[in-house]
Write a structure and sequence with these properties.
Layout: H1 24-33, H2 37-45, H3 48-60, H4 63-68, H5 81-103, H6 109-113, H7 117-120, H8 127-145, H9 147-161, H10 163-168, H11 170-197, H12 201-226, H13 236-248, H14 258-279
Helix pairs in contact: 1-8, 3-9, 5-8, 5-11, 8-9, 8-11, 9-11, 11-12, 11-13, 11-14, 13-14
Length: about 290
């Protein structure tokens, strides 16, 4: 039997550029997430509202379909700025929030609980690259159900209405993209921060849900006790309403001035980044 030379030889194949090595993390994370049939079913349901909105837009421009359904165009809600603001509100706050609750808490906590972070950071992969990879996992999934369908609906409405409508309502497309990304960045950083604090997915999910719900309850209590509206700075949905009101230029019953809402969002993102910088380390001191 032949005996082959099995001495160590260095790897001489292609090397991934260091700037793009963080993209490996979301690729494997997506494969892990979609192994769950429950998540696959939920992700499919997230597209039910965009399909319904597309049908609604189509009916506005098809008199024959309305006649067959015994409907009048005047009874349908108009496809305007308020329509897109309501659509994005459901996609971002309801479906995007639930998706974050399902995926976000499990991105960092298993690596910390099992001591895998030193292995990731020795690939070499920087802490910034690790955080970007984990954040891209969640941001891409939320994007697929928020601003991407929103822009497709905006393009459909523009195509059916014509160039004049697009020129008069181009700011809607900007509001869809900017508003979605403000929400995506904020909720993704918050999810990663809570996942790095709690080392179990269930605990991290409870913690994230508690931050959102308890913040709203605490804000209402502060408003009642001191007769002010500043308590809404602890309520993330109210902060987003204030920001979106300025972007869409429609009344969303915002309770805070846009400047206060922007400041609170910057503080939330800053604290989340500080927590990640503290927790994402290649070593751990055990006392």
């Amino acid at each position: 039997m032949a005996v082959y030379d099995r001495r160590y030889r260095g790897y001489d194949g292609p090397i991934t550029p260091q700037k793009t090595r963080w993209t490996v993390l979301p690729r494997f994370a997506w494969a892990q997430v979609f192994k769950s049939r429950l998540f696959g079913a939920f992700f499919t349901i997230c597209f039910a509202w965009p399909v319904a909105a597309a049908v609604w837009i189509y009916l506005h421009h098809n008199l024959n379909a309305l006649a067959n359904m015994n409907l009048d165009a005047t009874t349908l809600a108009p496809v305007d700025t308020g329509f897109f603001a309501a659509f994005m509100g459901v996609q971002c706050f309801v479906f995007g929030g639930l998706l974050t609750l399902l995926v976000g808490p499990g991105l960092v906590s298993p690596d910390l609980a099992n001591g895998a972070l030193p292995l990731f950071l020795s690939r070499p992969l920087t802490r910034t690259g690790y955080a970007l990879g984990k954040m891209a996992t969640l941001a891409t999934l939320i994007s697929l159900i928020t601003w991407i369908p929103g822009l497709l609906l905006f393009a459909l409405q523009s195509w059916l209405e014509g160039w004049s409508w697009f020129a008069a309502n181009a700011r809607i497309g900007f509001a869809i993209t900017a508003g979605s990304w403000i929400w995506i960045v904020t909720i993704s950083l918050l999810a990663l921060a809570t996942s790095s604090i709690a080392r179990r997915k269930v605990v991290a999910q409870t913690f994230l849900l508690g931050v959102i719900i308890f913040g709203t309850v605490a804000g209402q209590a502060i408003n009642q006790m001191f007769g002010t509206r500043l308590g809404f700075v602890f309520a993330l949905p109210e902060l987003m309403h204030s920001v979106w009101e300025g972007l869409y230029q429609v009344p969303l019953r915002a309770q805070l001035a846009p400047s206060i809402a922007w400041t609170a969002l910057f503080v939330i993102c800053g604290l989340s980044i500080a927590i990640l910088a503290r927790k994402l380390r290649a070593f751990e001191v055990v006392k």
